[in-house]
Amino acid sequence: MRTPTPQVGRPAGKARAAPTRRAVVRAVFGGAVVAGTAGTLAPILTKKASAGPAGAAAPPAERLTEIYRGRHIDCLTPGAAALWQHGAGWTPGGPEVLIDGRPLHVMRCANGGYMSVVNHYESFPTLLAAARAAVDGLGPARLSRTSAHAT
């Protein structure tokens, strides 16, 4: 006859104890984390690829050109940037600014404005305002021929 082997960590002949409060809280918290993550990611994962919000048309292409303090400023709004090619290659839809034919790296701010590498800690309401401030900040200096992100 075989003798039963005792389980490790439990005395022989004892029944399984009820789960501790720590185990119950851990299981409930784990379930809540999984449910919350699934609820948050479900709309993102099930959304069909689209160009923008449902029913929204792409912004119109707009190109602004002016001479400011003897410098030629050429701005392309985000709606038309994908259609414009400069020396570094195609742009994936972001704003573009050229000063005397040289690219000025501009970024969109959380407040809806723009900032440039010349005025990195100041936000401007429009691309043209950011370009003018960059011209003021540059003075007689010129921008580099290549973009900082060119490969």
From TrEMBL:
Entry keyword set: Copper, Signal
Coiled-coil ranges from the UniProt annotation: none
GO biological process assignments: melanin biosynthetic process
Keyword Lipid biosynthesis: no
Top-level lineage group: Bacteria
GO molecular function: copper ion binding
NAD listed as a keyword: no
InterPro entries noted in UniProt: GriE/MELC1_sf, MelC1, TAT_signal
Name of this chain's protein: Tyrosinase co-factor protein
